[in-house]
Specification:
Elements (H helix, E strand, L loop, with lengths): L4 E2 L20 H13 L4 E3 L9 E5 L12 E13 L3 E7 L2 E10 L2 E7 L5 E7 H14 L10 H15 L9 E2 L5
Parallel strand pairs: 1-9
Antiparallel strand pairs: 2-3, 3-4, 4-7, 5-6, 7-8
Length: 183
């Protein structure tokens, strides 16, 4: 099942997501999240982006075409960042919930985390480079943080009208989106 992607401005994107009780059956949801992500040509998708405020995200970096991302397909359940370190470096990021906006974001080059995989096996791994960046971006989603939050005040002001248009549904994308309801 392909879910609509939740658009910028929806409150679910600003909430810290809830932990998932251990051994919850997530197989169908995980499959649907990968299908939704591929349909939207993404490389990562967090559960809040489909309207579910739970600590789950999926990644498949291979479509980016970078050698370090070949075979990098993972499921992260209840992840916890243990350490972020390394030299901070800029890279242009985008987001399925914020279409047609791409900006340089500074992030540390290494991230170590503990998480459960799709079989509820606990993992503890360190990731570097683009793998770390994708994880940090998706982890931000389950913390209620968007990549635009990492931008400076001037950049945020310059993007304000474009972000408002996204929240009002004044955007054309090649995938289904759910826009914030009007009050």
């Amino acid at each position: 099942m392909i879910y609509p992607i939740v658009a910028y401005g929806d409150p679910v994107l600003r909430k810290r997501a809830e932990s998932i009780p251990e051994n919850t059956d997530l197989q169908e949801l995980i499959s649907d999240m990968f299908e939704t992500m591929y349909n939207a040509n993404g490389v990562g998708l967090a559960a809040p982006q489909i309207g579910k405020s739970i600590r789950l995200f999926v990644i498949d970096g291979e479509p980016m075409g970078e050698e370090e991302l070949i075979g990098f397909k993972r499921v992260f359940i209840n992840p916890e960042i243990l350490d972020e370190k390394g030299e901070s470096w800029p890279f242009e990021e985008g987001c399925l919930s914020i279409p047609d906006i791409r900006e340089d974001v500074q992030r540390e080059s290494r991230v170590k985390l503990r998480y459960f995989d799709e079989n509820w096996e606990v993992r503890e791994e360190e990731f570097t480079g683009l793998q770390a960046r994708i994880i940090q971006h998706e982890y931000d989603h389950i913390e209620g943080v968007l990549f635009t939050d990492h931008l400076g005040p001037l950049k945020k002001r310059l993007l304000k009208s474009r972000l408002n248009n996204i929240s009002k549904g004044k955007i054309k994308v090649g995938y289904s989106m759910r826009f914030p309801s009007k009050v």
